[in-house]
Design goal:
61% of the residues lie in helices and 7% in strands. The protein is mainly α and 165 residues long. Strand 2 and strand 3 form a beta hairpin. Helix 5 runs parallel beside helix 7 and helix 6 packs antiparallel against helix 7.
């Protein structure tokens, strides 16, 4: 499954990622590297890769002016995350937009491969909107707004996939 030839996988070492319990249980992408919690099985990893690689690695690539995802770490993506940390926690618009983009890239991919049905996409969109507005994402966006935005985007992705497929 080649989603981006520059992307790399690594296992999260407990020492480095033990800072917060939230980080321990999520995949985290920095530059071209997707860090995976050590206790994940292969199917959990497969499920999250389209989100991390088509979404976040591509975002790092954009911030690196399209040259290489590693160049996007600083200052581009760092700003998005710092903004999310130092400004009112529940209004981290940049993080919300990054997650919305990454997850909708994953929905399109799963629909195109016929791995998910439109209903799967809607269920995932609602579930992930809840996650993004929870403690795990530092309450990046109010829950009602996140649900509205994710459901709306899910319907667009489903409509587009139906036209293509
Ligand atoms: Zn994400």
């Amino acid at each position: 499954m080649t989603l981006d030839p520059a992307a790399r996988l690594a296992v999260k070492e407990s020492g480095l990622w033990g800072i917060t319990s939230a980080l321990k249980h999520f995949a985290t992408t920095i530059g071209r590297t997707v860090y995976i919690p050590p206790d994940w099985d292969a199917s959990s990893v497969r499920n999250v890769l389209p989100h991390e690689i088509l979404g976040h690695v591509k975002q790092f690539r954009w911030c690196g002016l399209g040259i290489h995802p590693t160049l996007g770490i600083f200052p581009g993506m760092a700003l998005v995350y710092v903004w999310g940390i130092i400004f009112p926690l529940w209004l981290a618009w940049g993080r919300y937009r990054c997650e919305l983009h990454a997850d909708s890239a994953s929905w399109s991919w799963h629909l195109a491969k016929r791995l998910w049905t439109p209903n799967d996409v809607l269920t995932r969109a609602e579930g992930f909107a809840t996650t993004v507005s929870s403690k795990a994402y530092a309450w990046a966006w109010p829950r009602k707004w996140a649900l509205w935005g994710f459901t709306r985007r899910a319907r667009q992705v489903i409509r587009k996939a139906a036209l293509v497929g």
